[in-house]
Amino acid sequence: MVATILAEATRFEYSADAMGGVFSIALFSESRTAADKATTAAFAELRRLDHLLSNYLPDSEWSELNRSASHGAVSVSAELFDLLSVCLEFSRRSEGAFDITVGPLLRLWGFYDGVGKSLEPAGVQQIRAQVGYTKLVLDPINRTVHFKEAGMELDPGGVGKGYAVDRMIELLKRNGIQRALVSAAGSSIFAVGTPPGRTGWPVDLSDPKQPGADLDQLLLKDQSLSTSGCSKKFVRVNGQVYCHIMDPRTGYPVRGTLQVSVVAPRTLESEIWTKAVFVNGRRWSVQHIPAGYQVHLCEEQSESSHCGWLPSPPP
User: Fold this and answer.
1) CA neighbours within 13 Å on the CB side: how many for 88?
2) pLDDT bucket at 303, cuts 50 / 70 / 90
3) Maximum Cα–Cα distance across the chain
4) CB of 189 within 8 A of CB of 183?
């Protein structure tokens, strides 16, 4: 924990490892005791969610669902059922570009172990048959989940960090914190209020082509920002670099898009929409991104890249 004393309050900084990355909290409080209490509650919630949503921990509810749901309907907690329901709704709204059933494809391509694999089209299509949000059956009456196809596997990578950040923000607010910035490995961020004397929390948009360089700076206030890109998570196959973001409908990693950032009211939504924009591209996104959201897109063009903010969607 780091503390910096300013005129109005003290800035406290905390961090913890979870979900394969570092979660950090920066907040302003007049009391170290209050700051410690709030962050203890937030990190306890993060640890709970890490266990609930992990696909690496064998005893997590998510892992148990992946093992059992193709054999029959599985009863799940209300929290997990509600989260899966939200995921299905966003799958429909993104026309299948965002899809948590993409697990078998990520495993096939080697994104889980970081070792790229040379694949034949027939093999990709065979595994693609195990993917598709319409094959995920939720029964709201009995609160059960069933996979229509054997071999299906849900991947929490597109929702877990965003959901965790939103829940951490709730705990901080519940404990009286009114100025805070929560970051999940720098890729999903939520800002509460503003730092003293500022109109927002400054957050930089990095340049996917130039490590250490920034493209823009945002001032966030009661907003989330999520960024998805290829610069940190990728595999090499036969000399080609493949981004970890898959198009579930084709079975292949997305090509041509380098980075997407989305500003939204909730971190779960900003994280999900980065995947939808990444897969569906510029033209679709201009027409379908909800009003009030902001989208920054970097695309690869020949030997260079083009980055910029998309125009707001039509009313």
Assistant:
1) 15
2) low
3) 65
4) yes
Q: Would you give the DSSP letter of residue 114? A: T
Residue with tokens 């749901």: 69
Q: Is the pLDDT of residue 5 over 70?
A: no
Distance CA 219, CA 208 (A): 20
Q: Tokens representing 139?
A: 């029964």
**pLDDT, tens digit, 9 for 90 and up, residues 74-118:** 999 999 999 999 999 999 999 999 999 999 999 988 888 767 666
Is the Cβ–Cβ distance between 119 and 108 less than 8 Å?
Answer: yes
Contacts of 65 (CB under 8 A, 6+ apart): 74, 76, 80, 145, 154
Q: Cα 221 from chain centroid?
A: 19
Q: Can you tell me which residue has the tokens 């919630």?
A: 45
Bridge partners (DSSP) listed for residue 306: 299
Neighbours of 136 (CB within 10 A): 21
Q: How far apart are CA 64 and CA 61, in angstroms?
A: 5
pTM higher than 0.90: yes
Distance CA 226, CA 198 (A): 22
Q: Domains in the chain, start-ordered, CATH in brackets?
A: 61-156 (1.10.3980.10)
Task: Give yes or no for residue 121 having a pLDDT over 90.
Answer: no
